[in-house]
Design brief:
The complex is a heterodimer of chains A (370) and B (471). Chain A has 370 residues and is of the alpha/beta class. Chain A is built from 9 helices and 13 strands. In chain A, the strands form 2 sheets. Chain A has an 11-stranded mixed beta sheet, with helices on both faces. Chain B has 2 domains: 263 residues, 3-Layer(aba) Sandwich (Aldehyde Dehydrogenase, Chain A, domain 1); 185 residues, Aldehyde Dehydrogenase, Chain A, domain 2 (3-Layer(aba) Sandwich). In chain B, β2 and β3 form a beta hairpin. The longest helix of chain B has 17 residues.
């Protein structure tokens, strides 16, 4: 007689398979990056310095600590060629930057990762609110940003045309640091003016990426004029940033969105994009993020020992790992903290909730438009 | 007890809450819903409704309701979040969260009541006898001349402090001037704004005229940036940040002082009582407490005599009616202040006169709070860094400086009590634009006449006197 697996059993099985897939993928990526034929100069040299043979030594995710922590300072300055895997040499190369308000920004190379990540993310968007073929508004940073091209690709992948604004986040950070509040407001108005122009120009824009701050500014500007985000035709929004607290999520749903759907996301130039578990009134607007495993992994680790995950529900620092053929980032300590979340059916691996600036660095972190 | 956010009179329970604990026992006193900046910005879209609701009520009627609110504030059992609060509860809760002795909390309760009950006279003074109907209506006639006063904002925003519950008197006149209130309470002193609002509501002030947003700094920023007229309480940094912003009235350290003219300084003992009261009243936590005594001679003797008096003050329970010191409830704050004083004393011209009379070190550390014992420094020269410092406990520097340099060198001074009969010195003092409140004679700096303006006239801050003609 056939037996039917219990939901818990089914989830356990999914968790098991996901871990197997992660380990298999990790071995493949490590073999790629540490083979002289396909790897990049940086990692080949690093393996020599560390006196390790990753292809032999790394068989599962638990072996990753042999690389130590990835330091994002390594990404500052050139030559960028040191990061290009020989196996991808000759392909058109993008460079995406992060930071850079003052001094030399951190840079990463990319070929197709941003497309792949956002095509995977596309599958998580509900068709009801993000109809295929819809036009999009990218109300976020422009310039040498991964997000800028990624959102446009997401829109194009889904059959639409993406409208963009000019927004220099480095200038925003400078305005905040200088305390030039009037200029900051004027710049914000300038950005919102661009968004309103696009939304008012009969482009039939239905979907949007934006940040919490800009979403609020847009919604309030529209409300002041007797309109709303929904009334302007927007049905679906994806957004992201550490200001995405449950209370902000509640406030946005109850007072800004006017019925438009919004999904929070978490990510950065190094990792890509983590989708969120649907949330709402029933779960106190809690936001839990799940990395696009096996291409990226999120862990929540002890503040005292970054190799030890905290227990589920406990607070720790966010550790990111990126595992693609384009870019290998083992154990990067993100500037955020949060609570470790249980796997669930859609994402049978660990997640993180309550993401906020890491308390030891929070005082030095300037939150701009993100 | 849960204190919700008040959004134009409507309670709002946030998902973000902070707990207020008893500073000594750690026992929970209340949870307070925390607002976010966006909430303030959204609600300010409706700010005009606050003024519109108040303008529905004739000025005379509004004054009656404010007077009634004063009685309720001091004597009533009022709704407080999801609970009720008697005046005794209020005093105990305020003392428990701020570390202020109950006697001082009760005195401040009476001070706020006085301002509410005497509002008619206070506004009469601040407006120099203007018919209050003109502020609501916008125009009128006075002595046969057409007049017009235009409100510069529909509401006043206020980012309030935790250190002295006495400062709330500054925003109390706003409601009877038919402007709404948007308040961010201090994190450990939500009690006064909530209780005043509750008394206002009970007395028939329209709830849609008042919002209260407890929360982090971004909430304060949202109020200061979103309200075209606002006041903020903070340190010198805050003052510097907003001093050139015509929309923000910053209140911070007062650097209030007493000066003795050369004509009376040889009789300094006659003024010791005024000096002690000015330094010690309200736990030395107010901007109106004296932090500098300026004299041309006898400085060391004056400092010594003051030190002997102030050294008698000791740490007592907040429930003790004789308690004169407030606890420092914010961790490490007392350590930081103590270090700053020690650093100031490294100057060769500075001497801690209290050190020999104190029975213990200045800094007293307890399990969950700290105290700083009263401190009198003698500064032989006005060049000493300690000559112009202010801290939130009974602290005073006695500074020696020639009389003809005194006015210029004492710098910005919120309250100056000048002990002199010298007509020429009095004239110079009247002309000194860096002195806000001037007392001539034995008036303690801490003794305010509420019929007079404080750090600018609130009426002039909120209304513009302009031309208005009709055909």
């Amino acid at each position: 007689m056939a037996t039917v697996a219990s939901p818990a059993g089914s989830l356990q099985s999914k968790i098991h398979h996901a871990k197997e897939e992660l380990d298999r993928h990790l071995r493949e990526i490590v073999a790629w990056h540490f083979s002289p034929d396909t790897g990049c100069p940086f990692w080949l040299e690093k393996a020599k310095q560390l006196r390790i043979n990753p292809i032999k030594d790394v068989q599962s995710y638990e072996d990753l600590p042999i690389f130590g922590h990835f330091e994002d300072e390594w990404l500052r300055g050139g030559p960028l060629q040191r990061w290009i895997p020989r196996g991808l040499a000759g392909k058109p190369t993008y460079v995406f930057e992060t930071g850079g308000t003052t001094g030399i920004p951190k840079s990463r190379i990319a070929f197709d990762d941003f497309r792949t990540d956002y095509e995977l993310f596309s599958k998580t968007l509900p068709e009801e609110f993000f109809p295929m073929g819809s036009n999009w508004l990218m109300l976020g940073p422009s310039g040498p940003r991964r997000l800028r091209l990624a959102v446009e690709h997401l829109c194009q992948y889904r059959g639409g045309i993406c409208f963009c604004v000019d927004l220099d986040p480095r200038w925003v950070i400078k305005l905040i640091k200088k305390g030039w509040h009037e200029h900051l407001e004027a710049y914000k108005d300038h950005v919102i003016d661009q968004a309103i122009s696009i939304l008012s120009a009969k482009h039939d824009v239905k979907c949007m990426f934006t940040t919490p701050k800009l979403l609020e500014s847009l919604a309030l500007r529209l409300q002041k004029g007797g309109s709303s985000i929904r009334k302007m035709g927007i049905t679906g929004i994806f957004s992201g940033g550490t200001e995405f607290t449950p209370q902000w999520n509640k406030f946005a749903h109850e007072e800004l969105l006017d019925g438009a759907y919004m999904t929070p996301t978490y990510g950065n130039t190094l990792m890509g994009l983590a989708a969120s578990k649907p949330s709402g009134q029933a779960d106190g607007y809690k936001i839990s993020y799940y990395a696009p495993q096996p291409r990226a992994v999120i862990e929540v680790v002890s503040f005292d020992d970054y190799t030890k995950p905290v227990d589920y529900g406990q607070t720790g620092r966010v550790k990111l790992t990126t595992l693609t053929k384009e870019f290998f980032v083992p154990s990067f300590m993100e500037r955020d903290e949060g609570e470790r979340e249980l796997p669930y059916d859609t994402f049978p691996w660990d997640g993180v909730s309550g993401v906020r600036p890491f308390h030891e660095l929070a005082a030095t972190t300037t939150v701009g438009v993100y | 007890m849960h204190l919700p956010i008040i959004r134009w009179g409507k309670p709002y329970e946030s998902l973000d809450k902070v707990h207020i604990h008893h500073f000594e026992t750690g026992e929970p006193i209340a949870t307070v819903s925390q607002a976010i900046g966006g909430m303030v910005r959204k609600d300010l879209l409706q700010a005009k409704r606050a003024r519109a609701a108040l303008r529905q009520i004739p000025a005379g009627e509004l004054l009656e309701r404010v007077k009634q609110a004063g009685e309720l504030y001091a004597n009533g059992v009022l709704p407080m979040g999801d609970a009720k609060q008697s005046p005794d509860d209020f005093v105990k809760q305020q003392s428990a969260s701020t570390g202020m002795p109950e006697s001082m909390c009760r005195a401040n309760l009476e001070k706020n009541k006085f301002v509410l009950v005497e509002m008619e006279n206070i506004l009469l003074s601040l407006t120099r006898g203007l018919d209050l109907g003109v502020l609501g209506r916008g125009f009128g006639e006075e002595r046969g001349v057409p007049i017009s006063f235009q409100a510069q904002a529909p509401v006043l925003g206020a980012v309030l402090p935790s250190n002295s519950p006495g400062v709330h008197t500054l925003w109390l006149p706003v409601i009877p001037m038919q402007l709404g209130l948007v308040l961010k309470p201090g994190s450990s002193e939500p009690w006064t704004p909530y209780r005043v609002a509750s008394a206002f509501f009970e007395a028939g002030i329209p709830p849609e005229a008042i919002s209260i947003y407890p929360g982090p700094h971004e909430v304060g920023d949202a109020i200061l940036n979103g309200c075209s007229k606002a006041m903020v309480f903070g340190g010198q940094e805050t003052i510097n940040k907003y001093k050139n912003n015509p929309g923000v009235q910053p209140h911070g350290p007062g650097f209030s002082k007493i000066m003795l003219g050369d004509d009376v300084v040889d009789h300094w003992r006659d003024y010791l009582e005024v000096m002690v009261e000015s330094v010690v009243k309200n736990g030395g936590r107010s901007c109106i407490n004296c932090s500098g005594i300026w004299v041309s001679r006898h400085g060391r003797d004056i400092a010594d005599a003051l030190a002997q008096e102030l050294a008698k003050i000791e740490v007592r329970s907040t429930t003790d009616p004789k308690a004169q010191l407030a606890a420092f409830t914010t961790p490490k704050m007392a350590d930081a202040v103590n270090s700053m004083i020690e650093s100031d004393m490294s100057h060769p011209a500075v001497e801690d006169m209290t050190a020999i009379y104190r029975k213990s070190p200045r800094l007293i550390k307890q399990a969950r709070c700290d105290y700083l014992l009263p401190t009198v420094l003698y500064c032989k020269s006005a060049d000493a860094p300690a000559a112009n410092k202010e801290y939130m406990f009974p602290f005073v520097s006695v500074v020696e400086c020639p009389q003809d340099e005194m006015i210029e060198r004492m710098g910005p001074t919120l309250v100056l009590t000048a002990l002199t009969d010298d007509p020429s010195l009095k004239l110079d003092l009247l002309e000194a634009i860096h002195v806000d409140r001037l007392n001539i004679g034995r008036v303690p700096t801490s003794s305010l006449n509420w019929l007079q303006p404080h750090e600018g006239n609130i009426v002039e801050f909120l209304f513009r006197n302009r031309a208005y003609q009709t055909a």
